[in-house]
# Entry
Amino acid sequence: MLPLVLASSSPYRRELLERLRLPFTWSAPAIDESRHPEEGAEQLVRRLAEEKARALITTHPNHLIIGSDQVAVLGDQILGKPHNFQRARSQLMAASGTHVTFLTGLALLNSESNTCQVDCVPFTVHFRQLDEARIGRYLEAEHPYDCAGSFKAEGLGVSLFSATEGCDATSLVGLPLIRLVDMLLAEGVQIP
# Structure
């Protein structure tokens, strides 16, 4: 098996990948994550996932490189990471009583053969009716300012949901393991 490398600085993605019990290293890719004009959310995450993987091809020439990127979509608006309390509160107020779809782009690049599998895995979160007091308490407790959509599903964020729907709950955290296993199996990786 070629060595695995995760093209990400995200501790959440590293924790998820550890579930597969495969040895891996990680390295943060240096890419421009700006959205191109007229680029839809799905095209954006597919492109960025592949670009993240390809950014490590020179330093990891004989590896399986995993790239992933995620956006949250509310109606026709892409929600990024809020980075602060005010923006997080605005995102959660907008999501109150409605749903947000998370699109997670996933790429597995074989840097030896230069073949790349790319996919996008959707996952939808339905929010309870939220008032400003509840949102404030949540944000003070968890500080999810580095998370698209302004919540951590693996923590207290789940208390904001009325339902979820999708084929792979790990995609919500940023690395769809079910689809990744499919890609790894196609590369001959034995799991378990």
About this structure: Helices lie at 11-18, 41-54, 85-95, 132-142, 170-173, 177-186. The radius of gyration is 17 Å. The chain has six helices and seven strands. The mean pLDDT is 95.
